[in-house]
Amino acid sequence: MDNQIDTRSDLMIFGALGDLASRKLFPALYQLERSGLLVRESRVLALARRDIQTEEARSLLMDQLRERVPEAQLDNDVLDRLVSRVQYHRLDFADLNQYRILNEWRDGSDNSLIVYMATPPSLYGVIARNLRDASCCTRKTRVVVEKPIGHDLETSRVINDQLAEVYREDQIFRIDHYLGKETVQNLIALRFANNFFASQWDQNHISHVEITVAESVGIEGRWGYFDKAGQIRDMIQNHLLQLLCLIAMDPPADLSADSIRDEKVKVLKALKPITPDMMETYLVRGQYTAGSSLGQSVPGYLDEEGADRNSVTETFVALKVEIENWRWAGVPFYIRTGKRLPEKLSQIIIHFKPAPHYIFDPDQKHLANNKLIIRLQPDEGMTLQILTKDQGLDKGMRLRRGPLELTFSEAFASDHIPDAYERLLWEVMKGSQYLFVRRDEVEHAWRWVDRLISNWSDHNPYPKRYAAGTWGPVASIALITRDGRSWYEDA
Ligand SMILES: NC(=O)C1=CN([C@@H]2O[C@H](COP(=O)(O)OP(=O)(O)OC[C@H]3O[C@@H](n4cnc5c(N)ncnc54)[C@H](OP(=O)(O)O)[C@@H]3O)[C@@H](O)[C@H]2O)C=CC1
Ligand SMILES: O=C1O[C@H](COP(=O)(O)O)[C@@H](O)[C@H](O)[C@H]1O
Question: What pTM, to 2 d.p., does this model score?
Answer without folding.
Answer: 0.94
